[in-house]
Amino acid sequence: MKNKIIFEYEYINKVEDVRKHIQNCEGKHTQQAIYSTFHDALTQVCFGCRKIRSTLFISKEEIVEWCGEQCQKAIEEACVDCYLKVEESVSEVLEKVRMD
Q1: Disulfide engineering: 43 pairs with which of 54, 86, 87, 93, CB 3.0-4.6 Å?
Q2: Residue 7 confidence (pLDDT)
Q3: What stretch of H or E contains 18?
Q4: Is the CB of residue 17 less than 8 Å from the CB of residue 48?
Q5: Side by side, which strands form the sheet with 31-36?
């Protein structure tokens, strides 16, 4: 498929850090910035960097749920079918939540 772009998903813990990426790409790359009031999360979709950066954590289990049975292997590794790469494990995020 010629028109397919593969994006890497990057979880970023702080909104300020996502804003820095948005500012760095501004004027250089086509991008979209989305804020979810429901999730209190900021997300950048940068077509130049080919990255989705967000304060919204997506676990590997959620990726598998979205992909269906064909992506069961995503529990162990990033889901190739969704083109998402999760940088932090669920346990690390839970530990951060407990500390806050």
Answers
A1: 54
A2: 85
A3: helix 15-25
A4: no
A5: 8-11, 51-54, 41-46, 31-36
Q: Which tokens go with 54?
A: 């967000």
- Integer distance in angstroms from the first to the last C-alpha of the chain? 44
CA distance 70 to 16: 36
Under the banding of pLDDT at 50, 70 and 90, the label for residue 19 is very high
Q: What is the pTM of this model?
A: 0.61
The predicted-structure confidence for 51-90, as pLDDT tens digits, reads as follows: 999 999 887 777 667 666 555 554 455 544 444 444 444 4
Tokens of 89: 């494990």
Q: Pinpoint the alpha helices (H) of the chain.
A: 15-25, 60-67, 90-99
